[in-house]
């Protein structure tokens, strides 16, 4: 997780030096991770609804309608059978393509590839199994945004999945998540 945060800080610092070139946006969002079923140790368990938080930095100066950037997202869901939970922190290189809907509204689709730090928290029931593993993963996104004076108000559905199960202290933890998010992107 420290590597993900350090990489994000370097990319953000580099992008601020290039920001004078315009066509940049920085966004912040939050929402809900929907109820799900995840395998832990090969057995499927249901999860409750959880939380999603994130931010991103994008550049739209490449091709009309195309935005390229980085997306950092945190999710948390708890298993319904006890008090343990699964958190994730991801760093994705993301591409989005926007379709005008008329006026100040547009729809967009996005896809990204990167790394996901999957963390299993055994809480007080299984503390010996608490740990994390970083695995490769991807995401897809479908959203709508509305242009306001200094940016865009947006809402989206984002699906994220690890390409393989995380291995945490010799036990496998599956990870995939569907989130409904709302946020604001500041243009600069």
Q: How would you describe this protein?
A:
The protein is mainly beta and 188 residues long. The chain has one domain: Porin, CATH 2.40.160. It has one helix and twelve strands. The strands form three sheets. The chain has an eight-stranded antiparallel β-barrel with strand order 1-4-5-6-7-8-9-12. The longest helix has 17 residues, at 2-18. It is elongated and about 55 Å long.
CATH class: Mainly Beta
Annotation, overall tally of beta strands: 12
- CATH architecture descriptor: Beta Barrel
CATH topology-level name: Porin
Strand arrangement in the largest pleated sheet: 1-4-5-6-7-8-9-12
Order of helices and strands: HEEEEEEEEEEEE
Shape label: elongated
How many independent structural domains?
Answer: 1
Domain Outer membrane protein beta-barrel: 8-188
Keywords: Signal
Pfam family, one: OMP_b-brl
Signal peptide: 1-21
What does the secondary structure layout of this molecule look like, with pairings?
Layout: H1 2-18, E1 24-33, E2 36-40, E3 43-47, E4 50-59, E5 66-78, E6 85-102, E7 105-121, E8 131-148, E9 151-162, E10 166-168, E11 171-173, E12 176-187
Antiparallel strand pairs: 1-4, 1-12, 2-3, 4-5, 5-6, 6-7, 7-8, 8-9, 9-12, 10-11
Organism: Rhodobacter ferrooxidans
Domain Outer membrane protein beta-barrel: 8-188
Keywords: Signal
């Amino acid at each position: 997780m420290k590597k993900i945060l350090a990489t994000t800080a370097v990319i953000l610092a580099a992008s601020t030096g290039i920001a004078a070139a315009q066509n940049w946006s920085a966004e912040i969002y939050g929402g809900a991770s929907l109820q799900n079923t995840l395998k832990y140790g090969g057995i499927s368990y249901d999860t409750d609804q959880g939380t999603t938080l994130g931010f991103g930095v994008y550049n739209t100066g490449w091709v009309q309608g195309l935005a390229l950037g980085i997306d950092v997202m945190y999710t948390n869901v708890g298993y319904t059978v006890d008090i343990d939970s699964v958190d994730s922190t991801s760093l994705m290189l993301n591409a989005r393509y926007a379709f005008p809907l008329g006026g100040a509204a547009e729809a967009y689709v996005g896809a990204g590839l990167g790394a996901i730090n999957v963390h299993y928290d055994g809480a007080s029931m299984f503390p010996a199994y608490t740990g994390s593993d970083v695995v490769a993963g991807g995401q897809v996104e479908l959203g709508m945004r509305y242009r306001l004076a200094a940016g865009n108000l947006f809402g989206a559905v984002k699906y994220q999945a690890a390409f393989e199960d995380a291995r945490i202290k010799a036990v496998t933890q599956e990870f995939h998540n569907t989130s409904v998010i709302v946020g604001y992107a500041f243009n600069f």
